[in-house]
Amino acid sequence: MDFTESLMNILSIVTITMCGFQKVPQIMRILKVESSDGISKESLFMELFSYTTMASYNFLNGYKLISYFEYPLLICQQLVLVALVLFFSSQPFTTLAGIFGAYTALVTTVMFKLFPSSILGLCVSLATPVSLSSKAIQLKHILTTRNVESISVYTWLMSSFTNATRIVTILSDSADRLLLTNFTLSSLLSCSITLCCVLFKQKPKAE
């Protein structure tokens, strides 16, 4: 194993490790301020769709868990985020129970390989644009409301970093243009959200 390959393996491990707690700062931030203002619900659900689709695709195709382990880690954190945002948005318990019941049923059909492959194929083709759109929606929401009190800068900073490391590992491995485009755009959007959070958090102090 040469130096470049070793470095790429280290970057992959770092990426997966960071994904294991990427959403934790955001979860802690919401609990601290006891508010989810400034966080787009649509963006959260779109991200959850993207993570679930990619995890399901890899699972049903029998790929090694290490190659997509970041998705299950992100899904667990995303579910906690969705629950907190809905809770602090004063959503009734029946709504929360219905959403998580439906999601559990969906995951069960995937685990027992009962989910139609044709529908999954369609979902996979939509996963990338949905993931990018979710970040674009969150960015637009921040620019519109200028409310970043409940948004964690650290979560988006880690998102920017992990996307950037994936660009490096893909360039070294397959140089797949589609994947490179996806992670480049994703990294730019995450960086933009991080920058907006920093600027809008500093603005009150400047005034």
UniProtKB/TrEMBL annotation:
The chain crosses the membrane at residues 66-88, 95-112, 178-200. Keywords: Membrane, Transmembrane, Transmembrane helix. It comes from the Eukaryota. It is found in: Membrane. The keyword Translocase does not apply. It is a multi-pass membrane protein. Its main location: membrane. It holds the Pfam family PQ-loop. The keyword Transmembrane helix applies. GO terms for cellular component: membrane. PANTHER family: MANNOSE-P-DOLICHOL UTILIZATION DEFECT 1 LEC35 -RELATED (PTHR12226), SOLUTE CARRIER FAMILY 66 MEMBER 3 (PTHR12226:SF3). This is PQ-loop repeat-containing protein 3.
